[in-house]
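Let's do one together. I've listed all components of the complex below, 837 residues spread over three lines.
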Amino acid sequence: MTDDISDIKDTLEAIRTESYTDLPTGLVNDLVQIEYDTLEDREESLQRVRKRVEDSLSEDN
Amino acid sequence: MSDDKTTLGLTPENQDFIDELEPPFGSGLDAARFAMAIAIREGATPGEVSNTNTVWNRGTFDGDGDFRDLVVALYPETNAPYRDIEYFINKGLDMIREHKEESKSLNLQELM
Amino acid sequence: MLHFNSITLENFGPYKGQQQIEFPEQAGVGIIYGENMRGKTTLLNAIRWALFGEILGRGEREISPEELINWESKEEGNHSFRVTLEFEFEGDDYQLIREYRPKTEGVEPNNAEDYTQDGFLRENGTILGPDEQEQRLNTILPRQISRFFLFDGELLQQYQDLLVDQSEMGEKIRLAIERILGVPVLKNGRTDLRTLLDEAESAVADAASKKAETEELGSQIQATQERVKGHRNEVEKLKSERGNLVDKRNKKRAELENIEGIQTQIERRESIEAEIEQLEERLERKEEKLEDVLSDAWYAALDPVLQDRLEELKDQREKLHQGHIDTQVADELAQRLETASRTGTCPVCDQDLEEGDESHLTDEIKSLRETAETDGGSQGEEYDDVVRAIGSLQDVQRTNPKEQINDVLDDLASIRVDIAAKKDDIDEINQNIDESEAKRATSLRKDEEKLTKKIGIKEDAIDSEQEKLTKAEENLDKLQDKLDRMSDGSFTEEKERRKLYEDLFDIFDKGVSSYRDELRDRVEEDASDIFIELTTEPEYARLEINENYGLTIVHESGDRITVRSSGAEHVVALALMGALQNNAPLKGPIIMDSPFGRLDSGHVRNVVEALPNLTDQVLLLVYRDELDQQEAREILGGQLRKEYSMRRESARHTKLVEGGEIDE
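Okay, and this is what the predicted structure of the assembly comes out as:
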């Protein structure tokens, strides 16, 4: 699938800013991008999501 | 009238035939009465029937005595109305059977 | 954006030898004119086969590719065909080749098993491996949503299924639409985050179980997590099983619909059988009634005789009565004359009787006495008998039941005639139904019922398992809260990770429904806009969308239009397609086979005008009566980029010819 998934990112951003302001910026967007890129490969998506979240946790620490 | 019959019977042939009349008649009694009426209407002269087997008690057939009175009214010379009735029943059944054989079916509307 | 460049057919269907269609490069509309049976649908199937390896017939029934080998070339000994599709996607050039040929060269194949299929995908010149190929194709144009791009006007029914809320098909199509619209991105994210959240929760419990104070609680949590996982898996499994059953049932239904006309005939037969049953009940009741009224049938037969006899007897009574009076009078008179004879005086005027009167008187008395004697004692008895007889006859008198009996007999005859006529109807239906197909229909229906039952049971199981899951999750929450309270300050890293995943999961979870709703709103809006352009009815205001992307027409008065012409259905379906194209991350060509079949000229005009706005590449496969060539040229103007026509070379050979005039 082509074209942008900015709609999806916008929808989630709206939810994040409303109730989850603690969350680091860009994390949610990155996850959306990962899922889009790995639509057909569930294993890969899981791995990459885990990694991205771990990176986020280590950044904080 | 003390010589009159106390029971009414059917010839063996008519005993079989009357079964074929139920349906449309609800009972052999209804069929017999109808047969009797047919015979009277067709002008049958009352006589005697031989080799009948008893089917009804005259009280069963004619509880109020209406049919006996009827026969007496129609045939004042009679001295044995129940014997006459028995005759008419069997004669009527013969007639109906003949009609059925000729028209291949029982046409009540015609008979009536 | 997906853009088709060309399609080349070799011995596929009626296309003998190698034939090619080049799609216009610039945005616009291409039209292929061809009569029915010339190969329009086959062209659509060629694209479908190239992309997905399947060929669909009526009712989405799969057709064996063997049937599509060009007959003439087969007779010449060539038992294979090939389709090559060239397209562009996201800047890359692709060539997709699919071939169908006998397994063993040189050996004449007898049936489908003797054939094999190969597909190759080249990306920018390089052939992709089979897995990569499948993945790529699935990304470019997922099969489930292909119906929105390869549009078969004959399959309008599918779109009508969409419009029914709660339908099974509707649900499937909704999922297909959401696929195009990007919802899977969110759903997948949600699933992944759920998995990772479970892991994070496990990690907390694990850490807790390693510390003395929290050991027991930690183990409890772990055990409960296992249970929750178990229930979740079970729910998933049951849902998937249910999905399989629904698929099976849908297949049965599709096959059932295929047994064309049989279904209607069978239903008609059943309805007639029900009518016969009712008539037979009526017959039975009438026969009972007949028995009832026939108990007086003897009277009907005898009535005329009785009436006559009654008349006779009444006359007799009159006579007897009159006679009786006569004798009484005679007796009285005789007595008076006897007195006169004795006294010699006339009883009337009291004068003396004269000499000659004596003998006259004696004669007269004699005559009177004779009259008085005739009555005698017996006259009284006879009169009594007659009176009694009259009484008996009057006693039995009643309304003549003859008319009533005749009515009942007539009714019976009429019912019997009805029954016979209906039985004849059934015989005729039976003659028309191919009994084996009828059996198949009956067996399919039984299967369908069985499957429906099984689905019901499965759904109950899902509900019950879901309940268990919910309880277990509640338990888990309680335990986790307890742990958190107990272990303030411990396991901070694990808790932090868990919190992060919780938040992320919530966001994606809420995102799914939020996004869905937004999408549906956008689709509704776009579909309404397109619909207004396409419809010829000025009083239609907009479209309204339901859960399953079904659309209802809304009148300007606010009323929902529930009963629609098939023209309206068609246009609604097209509006939906256009809206989906607008909102889909996937943009690509739309190929329509007989899209105008049921539309009137007003609608056709509107649709043709709107085509270029639907998407960049539109290809129409139409027959002459469906779309007038001149009119199309006039409406589309410069937007009409290419025309082809299907020329008949022979009954089984069609040639695709570029340009102009349609084959007469």
